[in-house]
Automatic annotation (TrEMBL):
Annotated catalysed reactions: tRNA(Phe) + L-phenylalanine + ATP = L-phenylalanyl-tRNA(Phe) + AMP + diphosphate + H(+)
MF (Gene Ontology): ATP binding; magnesium ion binding; phenylalanine-tRNA ligase activity; RNA binding
EC number(s) from the headed UniProt entry: 6.1.1.20
Compartments where found: Cytoplasm
Descriptive protein name: Phenylalanine--tRNA ligase beta subunit
Amino acid sequence: MKVSISWLKEFVDFNISSEELADKLSLGAIGVKEQTQDYLELDLTYNRGDLLSLRGVAREVAAVTGSKLFFSTPKQSDHPWERKDLPENLVRVDDKNLCPVYCVATIEELKIEPSSDEWVKKLKDSGIRSVNNAADVTNLIMLEYGQPMHAFDASRVKDKTIVVRCAENGEKITTLDGKERILDETDLLIADPEKTLGLAGVMGGKDSEVSANTKTILLEAAIFDPAANRQTSKRHGLYSEATKRFQHGLTRTNLLQALGTAIEMYEGLGGKLTAITLTGSLQDEAKTIKLTREKINSLIGIEIPPIEIESSLKKLEFSLAAQDSAWEVTVPYWRLDIQIEEDLIEEVARMYGYDKIPPKELKGELLEKINQNFFNLIYDLRKASAEAGLTEVQTYSFFSSAVLNNLAWDKNNLVKIANPISSETEYLRENLWPNLLEIVDKNLKAGYKDIAIFEIGKTYSPQKGDLPKEDYHLSIALMNGTDNPIQELYQIFESLKNSHPGGVTKDLTDENKYFHPTRFAALEKDGKQVGWIAEIHSRIANKFGIEKRVAVLELKI
């Protein structure tokens, strides 16, 4: 949001430099991306939609500088249409959830010409180019009030009738940027009885654009569902200053003020209001929130005097009714971001000044330091494996269907996932080495000849109860192109002894169908088997597409 300094001074009486103003806003949690003598560019958080208008920024400036505002909320009787007996335009809104408020005014006897130098400068300082006086009014109003508007050439609207409806699948529209858009039923349209006039809240259509020959306009001011508007904007890749404001949410009170001011500006150009239609609920619901001193002091961490709390919120135009150690706070209609007590407390904190909140030691006792020996062991083992020339890989925590088929694994001995994302993720891995064989196969196909990889990760085995037993394993797979890769793998294992829990080798006595009949041995520690080292049986290797000898090691950490 670019804020023209000279234009801002029409709404609030401040006499500090733009640099000082930027500092004060920043201390009040309003970010400033760029500061010049002509403008400030604000870096707003998404919740502060009220600051997408000069009047909203002026309210914030008045609060942080103690300055006076030059405007107030007008009474309903002050709107220009209240003083006239005017006919209504024909308007039909098909879905009031997608378009809860739709207003359209007919302005006749306009002369389309370039805008004044004053208007052009206001737009330029705000980062918007001037088009013509009719289009510039809608942009000036959007910048001042945060309420987007659109002007249709009335002569191009059939019977001057507006229909707000959802598009049909495959329906097309050419937007103001000259591109044809293919629509679907999620897109909300502004149309007449015969054709589409624009994408609601996103961009107008080429067929109803205001031109130099336009004499009468239909001026639209509406509120559209923010989520639906965002969906249409994203799907068509159309992002504008108007869509940004629709997506943050708008208020009825602000819409009526903006519409009234726009009509007066067109009347200043010689236009004449001849008809107006206001549909939907035009009253904003008052919102009240209970605020307690206990919650304020608990969250902020210091005792803030009640007078400071009241002063902070009143500066932002909140109304307070005092109760016992609490307040009933009425939220201004333009602050749509204030929903709960914590939102109010944030306002108190930033107005009080974050810089005034002193650092404070946490109370309570520190927990005992977690024993990191096991994780240090894993780190040392990972480091030692890499230093031994192995490349670390990381595979999924489940067995693929290819692994299960190649090994003819008994699935009854595996942990089955209750809600797998696919048939490939049904069973958790019991060992790491089968997944390493898949990696060896992929590397062979990629053209690698010597493969030395390792993985450290969790394995899972069934046990009584709901949760499986989890263990950490180290697994190594080695293919070096020799007829006996297990020799080199054993040397690597010996080099890791300082990093793993120790162990000696012992011949396996039980026949294992996955391994070479004479090239396998157990790894033991304190008389218990903690792993094994073996050469994969050629029959098993071939099933994985591997034609060479592969040695593997699996060690429980």
